[in-house]
Every structure is written in structure tokens, then in C-alpha cells.
Amino acid sequence: MDVNMKKATSEFVTERVNHHGRNETKVVNSAFVGLCDCAERLKASLTAEQISLFTKMENAYRLADGESIRFYWKSGFADALQFLMGWSSNGNADNGE
User: Fold this and answer.
1) Helix, strand, or coil (residue 96)
2) Backbone angles phi, psi at 93, to 5 degrees
3) Band of the pLDDT at 93, cuts 50, 70, 90?
4) In sequence order, what DSSP letters do the residues of 24-77 get, joined into one string?
5) Spatial distance between the Cα atoms of 85 and 81, rounded to a whole number of angstroms
6) Measured between alpha carbons, how far is 22 from 28 in angstroms, rounded to an integer?
7) Model's pTM, two decimal places?
């Protein structure tokens, strides 16, 4: 995939991930609300030092979750593009030559 196509793919994936993040289904939203509720109840039972560690863990989890979503979206989109453009014998999209 050339540089322009990679850039366009990255921008498209970012926009789609953001769109879906703003338009979650009820099931996804309910799961997230449940997770946040459990986290808040756990946090209320911790000491100040433990709360600090828990907050760091929450931040690390959110970053890992976001990066995982982006990685799989980008990988799947790149695969779909290669499929639509055609597969060549060397594994790259065929340019028609």
C-alpha cells in the first residue's frame, strides 16, 4: 500500500472508531456502565494509596483498550482493501499490470 493510501486508511479508521465511540449500541453502553459501576464501588473501598494505583491501572486499561480497537479496525480495513483491490502472487494488492 502506498504512503497516500496508508494515510487515507489511517484517517478513515480514526474517523470510524470515533464515530462508533459516539454512537455505541445499548449493549456496549450497558457493559461499559456496568464496568464503571464496579470500578467506582471498588474504588470506594480502597485506601488513598490504593486509589492512586487503581487510577493508574484504569488509565493504562483505557489506553490498551483504545489501541487494541484501533489495531484490529486498521488491520481489518487493510485486509478488506487488499481483498477488494485483488491479491497478487506476492501478497500485495495487484495494480492491474
Assistant:
1) coil
2) -60, 135
3) very low
4) --HHHHHHHHHHHHHHHHHHHTS-HHHHHHHHHHHHHHHHHHHHHHHHHHHHHH
5) 6
6) 11
7) 0.58
